[in-house]
Amino acid sequence: MLRTCRVLYSQGGPSAGSWQPLNFDGGAFHLKGTGELTRALLVLRLCAWPPLVTHGLALQAWSRRLLGSRISGVLLRASLYGQFVAGETAEEVRSCVQQLKTLGLGPLLAVPTEEEPDSAAKTSEAWYEGNLSAMLRCVDLSRGLLDTPGPSGNNLMQLKMTALASTRLCKELTSWVRRPGASLELSPERLAEAMDSGQNLQVSCLNAEQNRHLQAALSRLHQVAQHAQAQHVRLLVDAEYTSLNPALSLLVATLALRWNRPGDGGPWVWNTYQAYLKNTYERLQRDVEAARRAGLTFGVKLVRGAYLDKERAVARLQGTEDPTQPDYEATSRSYSRCLELMLTQVSHHGPMCHLMVASHNEESVHQATKRMWELGIPLNGPVCFGQLLGMCDHISLALGQAGYAVYKSIPYGSLEEVIPYLIRRAQENRSVLQGARRERELLSQELRRRLLGGGLKVHH
Ligand SMILES: Cc1cc2nc3c(=O)[nH]c(=O)nc-3n(C[C@H](O)[C@H](O)[C@H](O)COP(=O)(O)OP(=O)(O)OC[C@H]3O[C@@H](n4cnc5c(N)ncnc54)[C@H](O)[C@@H]3O)c2cc1C
């Protein structure tokens, strides 16, 4: 059960004295029920146990065989699924979002889809069409979730491009985009024209089947973006592997030409920038400048990056240069520079530029809130924060209670759909889960306090 008492921390602004860092000391946990805190502690402890993450899928199959699918399902719902997933039905998602709203947090819905390149069913045109329907339903659900428009005036949802266009096509496009002189044939302008007209696009590097798939993917993207704008839902496109990202960025740039025009209340289509890649700062600088020159609005979800181990393994295997930063500190410096760049852009160009600081890192969040204060960026304006549902509530709650726009990334769907997705995410975010030590300590501290009868702690 969630308690709804709301404590307002006053952050002020340049005119209201000096900047005060937010307290991420777990004080905001008093808003949560003991059951929820206990589950969070148990699940985070389990996730810090490497064999569970490494062999998650095998363990799940084994528990289904041993306990039967009903009992194993009940256990998962009470643990992993209950902690990180909103539910299966629209009703369950609404109820989860309602609880978040009472805590000052907004929803960033995510449809968990996983292409399986070796499965004929999960790479067929029918599968991508099914994903299109799921995305359109997600737009409707996102729109219906808040009776009044969200903290920055609209709702947000995540969009995974490879749910609508195959990874095989994206790899092909990526290798073509990287060639010098390919830009004319594969320009966002040319793709946008094909998207509008629905006419058969012929790209010379693709065979007939791939050309048909590209045309169908453009039509799907068109439908999602058009519906999202009509429903006032901003689409935050996920970044994936470096073998796909240039193609994903090309498709985002194509959508941006149509849905990030000034005066439309945009940006409606945002891209994600991964600070762990060596070239991200320069790419962000180039893209923000290009959007400004073209008179387009520009939206950025800034993350550190989730696919570190795989990126390095692929580079080792192919004997190519590792595209990622050499160590954690270098990634954090890169994140900090990108953050500074985007906040300065927001302060100069206002609502033409939007930013989501998608991080669980306290230093990054402190940097963002401090610079927002120094630059006079309003708490509830074009800058917002994002964390995953079930992770780092001590940060999300403190931000939300202080009046910042904070969104929890919320996957939803059936147990069968979501658990493989969650386990893969946990493998990708292994270091984050193992590093959630501070969150576990804060949870234990709050639970100990409650059990020893400390009563309700009130923060001023
Ligand atoms: C709302 C939201 C949306 C997201 N969307 C995406 C997305 O579209 N694409 C995507 O890739 N990720 C996405 N992520 C995940 C994100 O990239 C990070 O994996 C996750 O947030 C952890 O980073 P952090 O800043 O929160 O925490 P921290 O614990 O401070 O940072 C951990 C991160 O640091 C980096 N790192 C760790 N060790 C090293 C090392 N030895 N060398 C170099 N770098 C290192 C890695 O990127 C690692 O994930 C999203 C996260 C959120 C909250």
Automatic annotation (TrEMBL):
GO terms for molecular function: FAD binding; proline dehydrogenase activity. It catalyses: trans-4-hydroxy-L-proline + a quinone = (3R,5S)-1-pyrroline-3-hydroxy-5-carboxylate + a quinol + H(+); L-proline + a quinone = (S)-1-pyrroline-5-carboxylate + a quinol + H(+). Its cofactor is FAD. Gene3D superfamilies: 3.20.20.220. One of its GO terms (biological process) is L-proline catabolic process to L-glutamate. InterPro entries: FAD-linked_oxidoreductase-like, Proline_DH_dom, Proline_oxidase. Its EC number is 1.5.5.2. Residues 183-434 form the Proline dehydrogenase domain. GO terms for cellular component: mitochondrion. Keywords: FAD, Flavoprotein, Oxidoreductase, Proline metabolism. The keyword Flavoprotein applies. Converts proline to delta-1-pyrroline-5-carboxylate. Belongs to the proline oxidase family. This is Proline dehydrogenase. It comes from Otolemur garnettii (Small-eared galago). The gene is PRODH2.
